[in-house]
# Entry
Amino acid sequence: MRHKAIFVFQVLSMMGIWVFVLGISAWVIRLIRVANQLKDAETASVAISLVAIPVFLTGASVLTYVFVGLQRGAKKN
Amino acid sequence: MSQDATNLGADEALIKPLHRVSLKLTLLVGILVLLVVNMFIVFARQVGLGLGVTGMNHPVTWGFYIVNFVFFIGISHAGTLISAILRLSQAEWRRPITRMAEVITVIVLAIGGVHPIIDLGRPDRVLNVFTSGRLQSPLLWDVTAISAYFMASTVYLFLPLIPDIAILRDRGGKLRPLYEFLSWGYVGTDRQKRVLENGMTVMMIIVIPIAVSVHTVISYIFAMTVQPGWHSTIFGPYFVVGAIFSGIAALLIVMICFRTAFHLEDYLKPIHFSYLGKLLLIMSLLWFYFTFSEYLTAIYGNEPHEMHIVMYKFTGAYAPFFWGMVVTNFVIPVALLSSPKTRTIPSIMIASISVVIGMWLERLNIVVPSLANPRLPTDTGFYIPTFTEWSLFAGAVALFALGFIVFSKLFPLISVWEMREGESHGVKEVTDRVKSYLPGGGTQAKAQTADSGKASEK
# Structure
């Protein structure tokens, strides 16, 4: 029972990380749209976003990959 | 995990700090808590009364808070960057250092990142960043870059921590549910080790360019303005060099304190301090080179506004801070670290403290003089920090120390699994690697490895 509860919390925390990352990404994309609408420093906005969004996505992807890999590795054992 | 995996033998010394609470430590924690409580009280007062309680005024509208922001973010570069470089280059002496370096990054980044919010006066207005923020402002570049770096550093700290959390989980205790939650079911199977290694490799590769770009972006809040003293093309690399410099110094201070407090002389050996001491010396020379280039360009150009600031630092009101910075960042470390005879642990400690003070002075020298001497025809500004700023500064340093102590009570500050890995097959790996560097060594080493494999099969 306790193992199940902990697993549920782990999955929820992973989902929380994805909500955070996708939220940040959506916010940054909105900022590019604002820059585009105002025709003000569009290139700087795109450049910053090109660095930031992949970092967040890579971080969350690596965490998900490790989480899933560790769960599968434990089951195989 | 097997019984053997949780029985640490001599490496039990690495787990001991988790349980040992001395009177000295209790007293230290008490003092730190008092400083942090004072910080919150003083901050609440600042929120109530406004920024008028600080020494900031017109035209010096940035003071200690932005100085500390740049300073703390700079210190954070120690960790992840050094750890990632040492791991990627397979430097064997990294093993007892990396964890401490990574922890410094995450704690200091969290503290430093909050400073611009303190500087707002109305902290609730930080929400405007999300509702009305625009990427046209370099300040928002900072928000994006620091949060990305924080995310990457936290992941990079967490992944190598998992095997150690699994050891703590299997040893039981009151915190077992927490360790069970954080260990993600790690039991040390080959597949799990491979997955973890893949994840760590990806993070250590991406974290290096992120760390460099973050401090470059931090420099842009100054360099992107046409303010004399700030509008410089070398500010990006200058900030990165300064960040790594102060970061190594902070790491050395933490290592020496931790070594003394928990008697880890067997793990943190003079050789580790010697290597990092040499690195500190190189960074000191590099910092001097950048500082020299920065000021030489300004003096040779002889632009009146620029020269006004240069003279304000050289002979004016900021001369004690400027020359203090040169002495603490260059004269003292170079004098102490140049000779192997003087490159002892106490000398390294003195040099590191000197560099941390010097790098803080450097940030002060960048922020205040340019604001005090604007292009507009106004009187030269003046900035004297009040009790409010000093309290918040002391509180931030106390919060860092407290965060580090709390971490050391929850997780080992020296990576247990990495030390054991080094003991079990690190020596052989290094021997094979060194042989492969030598002429004809690649084939010889391979043949020897194959031979030893056959022998063990037999």
